[in-house]
Amino acid sequence: MLRLTEIRLPLDHPPEALETAIRARLGGAEIHGFTIFRRGYDARNPRRIMLAYTLDVEAPEEAALLTRDTALRQAPDTAYRFVARAPGGLAERPVIIGTGPCGLLAALILAQSGFRPIILERGKVVRERTKDTWDLWRRNTLHPESNVQFGEGGAGTFSDGKLWSQIKDPFHFGRKVLEEFVKAGAPEEILYVSKPHIGTFRLVQMVESIRATIEALGGEYRFGCRVDDLDLDASRQVQGVVLEGGERIAARHVVLAIGHSARDSFAMLHARGVAMQAKPFSIGVRIEHPQSLIDRNRFGPHAGHPLLGAADYKLVHHAANGRSVYSFCMCPGGTVVAAASEPGRLVTNGMSQYSRNERNANAGIVVGITPADYPGGPLAGIEFQRHWEEAAFAAGGGTYAAPAQRVEDFLAGRPSTTLGDVIPSYRPGVTPTDLAACLPDFVVAAMREALPAFDRQIPGFALADAVMTGVETRTSSPLRIPRGVDCQSLNTRGLYPAGEGAGYAGGIMSAGVDGIRVAEAVALAMTDGGPVRASGSRADDALTYG
Questions:
Q1: Under a CB-based contact definition with an 8 Å cutoff, are residues 471 and 346 in contact?
Q2: Average pLDDT of 20-27?
Q3: Would you say the pTM of this structure is higher than 0.85?
Q4: pLDDT tier at 534 (50, 70, 90 boundaries)?
Q5: Please, which pLDDT band fits residue 70 given cuts at 50, 70 and 90?
Q6: Are 436 and 444 in contact (CB under 8 A)?
Q7: What does the pLDDT look like over 271-289, one tens digit per residue?
C-alpha cells in the first residue's frame, strides 16, 4: 500500500472526485483500490474550505511509483503485535489501580496477553457513577468517591471525548486505542477523521463493553476499593497493595493509573518515599460563547455543514508579565460541568455529547503555573489548587454554585451583579461576582491582556455578555512520578507510574497510549522477555492537550 498525502478537494466534492484526484496525482497509473486514512479540513479561508485527505492506495506498480514521486511513501504497518504472552499456569497476577483511559488500556492489553489482571477502582461502575455525578449537578450533593474525577472510566468519561493528541507515537499505539474503541461501540469515523471525538454517552457504553471484554479474558474488576498503602520489602520491591479497611492483595507488578485528582493517594505515595517531583500545570476559568459565533468565525458561509460540525478553536497569548495564556479542552456545543471531588472545594470542567449541539461553546482559558509559584515540595501544587478551589467555593456561595462574571465586567475590573444574553450552562447554577477573588493576581492580569488579543483572532471573543465561570484547576497533574526506561518507579521496583496522574499523559488518547506502553513493560517483566520498546514519547508531551 502507498501512503498518499495532501489530496485536497472542495468541501462539497462528489464521491468520484477522490479517485479522479488519486489517478491524476499518480500520473494516470492503474490503482486497485484505496482507503481513507485521514480526512481533515483547511478552514483558513472560510469562503473556500477544502477537505484534505491522506489515503492508502493499492497499485500494481508501487515500486515504480515510489521512484517517480518522492512525495509518496510506503504505508506504515499499524497492526498491533503483542510483546509477550503469559505462560501457561502463571499464578502471579498484575494489579492495576484506576480505570481511566490509561488503566483501561493497560488492563485490556494485559488481559489480551493472558495475564488476568486485577483492576482496582475506588469509585463505582460507570452507570452508578453517572447517577452520583448528576446528584452534584442537580441536587448540590457531592459523593467524594463517585464523581467526575473518580469512578469507572476516569475523568475523561465526562468530557468532550476527544481522541487526538500531539504525542509522538512511532509504534502506532494510538491506532490500537482507536480500533479497540470501535470494537466497543465507537463510530468507525474515529479511525479517519482528523479530530475524532465520541462524547460522554458513547463513552459510558464503550467503558462497559471493554470491561466485559477484560472479564471474559480472565480479568477481575473490584469497585469501591481504594488503595491506602503499598506493601514494600526492605529493598523497596512492591509485594502488594493494602485496601481501605486493611485487606491486602499480593502483587509484585502494580500499575499506578490513579489520575490527576487522587490527592490522598499522592500523599500516601509521598509518605512511602516514592520518588516524585513538582511539575507545571495551569489554572484559569471556563469561558462560554454562543456556538453560532464560533461557527461563523471559523466556517463563514459553510457554518452548519454536516462534514464540519460545530467549530472549535485553539488560542495562545504570551502576556507582558511573562505568562502564557491558552485555550484548553475546548468543547464545541457543550456544557460547563461541576467537577469537584472534595467537599468545600469547587472545580469546573467542560463536556460535550457526540452531537455537540448544545447552545454554547466553552473552553478553559488558563494560565501556566510553575513550581516557583508554589514552593514547598512535590505536594505543594495540590495545596495551591485547593486554596483557589476553596476561594471559588466561597465566592459561589458555599453550595457548589460557581462564581461567574461577564467578560465586559472582568475586563473592567468590576463584579458582575447580573448576567446577559449568554446563559451559563453550569449546573447546579452560578453566582455573579468578581472572579479576581478566585485567582492569583498574575493570572487575572494575564487573562485581561489575553482576551482582547483573542478577540482580534476571533471577532466577538471578548463579547460583553460572554460568561466566565471559575475555577479550572485540574488541567493536569501538579506532580510527576518519574520512571525509568522500564516504566518502573525510579526507587520502587514493581510500581509502574502511568497516565495523567503520574505526569505522562494529557487526555484520553495519550493516556490510552501510555497504558499500552506500561502494560507491555509489565508483560515483559513478568516473563523475563527483555527490554521494553524504545519510548516514542516524552513526558513533556503530556503538557499538550487535545
A1: yes
A2: 92
A3: yes
A4: low
A5: confident
A6: yes
A7: 999 999 999 999 999 999 9
CB neighbours (10 Å) of residue 456? 10
Share of the chain above pLDDT 70, in %: 98
Closest of 439, 448, 503, 447 to residue 475, by C-alpha: 503
Helix residue spans in 144-285 (DSSP H): 173-183, 199-216, 263-271
Rounded distance between C-alpha atoms, residue 40 and residue 200, angstroms = 23
Distance CA 430, CA 335 (A): 13
230-245 burial, b at 16+ Cβ within 10 Å, e below that, comes to bbbeeebebebbebee
3-state helix/strand/coil string of 245-256? CCCEEECCCEEE
3-state secondary structure of 95: strand
Q: 73: closest CA among 84, 83, 62, 82?
A: 62
Residue 429 has pLDDT above 70, yes or no: yes
23-54 burial, b at 16+ Cβ within 10 Å, e below that, comes to eebbeebebeebeebebebebeebeebebebb
∠ Cα 185 187 191 (to 5°)? 115
If we measure between CA atoms, which residue out of 536, 511, 538, 540 comes closest to residue 169?
536
Q: What is the DSSP letter of 214?
A: H
Task: Let me know how many helices (H) and strands (E) the chain has, helices first.
Answer: 12, 23
CA distance 329 to 318: 19
What is the average per-residue pLDDT within 237-266? 97
**pLDDT at position 542 over 60:** no
**DSSP 3-state assignment of 3?**
strand
Cell output for 418:
447580573
Report the distance separating Cα 275 and Cα 18, nearest Å: 54
CA dihedral 391, 393, 397, 403 (to 10 degrees): 80
* Separation of alpha carbons 392 and 401, rounded Å: 9
Quote the CA–CA distance of 75 and 73 in Å, as a whole number. 6
pLDDT band at residue 543 under the 50/70/90 scheme: very low
| Nearest by Cα to 518 from 66, 167, 173, 186 | 173
Q: Which residues contact 534 (CB under 8 A, 6 or more apart)?
A: none
Is 329 a residue whose pLDDT tops 70? yes
Number of neighbours of residue 444 by Cβ within 10 angstroms: 20
